[in-house]
Amino acid sequence: MKIRALLIPLLLAVPLMAQRLPQNVIPKHYRITLVPDLAAAKFSGDETIDVDVHDPSTTVTLNAADLEFDDSSITSAGHAQKAQVVTDEAKQTATLTVADPISGPATISIAFRGTLNDQLRGFYISRTPLRKYAVTQFESTDARRAFPSFDEPAMKATFDIATVIDKGDMAISNGRVASDVAGPGPDKHTVTFERTKLLPTYLVALLVGDFRCSEGSTDGIPIRVCTTPDKVALTKFAVDAAEKELHFYNEWYGIRYPFEKLDVIGIPDFAAGAMENAAAMTFREADLLVDGKTGSAEARRRVAGVIAHELAHQWFGDLVTMRWWDDVWLNEGFATWMTGKAVAAFQPLWSNLATEARATARSLGSDALASTRAIRTRVETPAEIESVFDSIAYGKTAAVMRMTESYVGPELFRTGIRAYLKKFAWSNASAEDFWNTMTETTRQPVDRVLSSFVLQPGYPLVGVTTKCQDGQTQLSLSQRRFYATRADLQNGSKTVWTIPIVARSLDKDRSTYRLILDEPSHTFSIPGCSPHLFVNADGRGYFRSQYAPPVIDVMSRLTTAEKVSLLSDDWALVRAGETNIASYLTRVELLVADHNPVVVTAVLPPLNAIGDDLTVDSDRNVYHAWLRSLLSPMAREAGWTDVAGEGPDTQEMRADLLSTLADSGDDPDVQRRARELAPAVLDGTSTLDPQVALVVLRIAASGGDAALWDAIQARLAGAVTPQQKSMYRSALARFRDPALIERTWQWAMSPKVRSQDRFGVLAGLLAGDDSRPIVWPHVKEHWAEIASHVPPFQMAFMAFGMSRVCTVPERDEVKAFFDAHPLPGFERRVRQSIERVDSCIAFHNEQASNLAAFLGGGATGASK
Question: Rounded to whole angstroms, how far apart are CA atoms 63 and 25?
Answer without folding.
Answer: 12
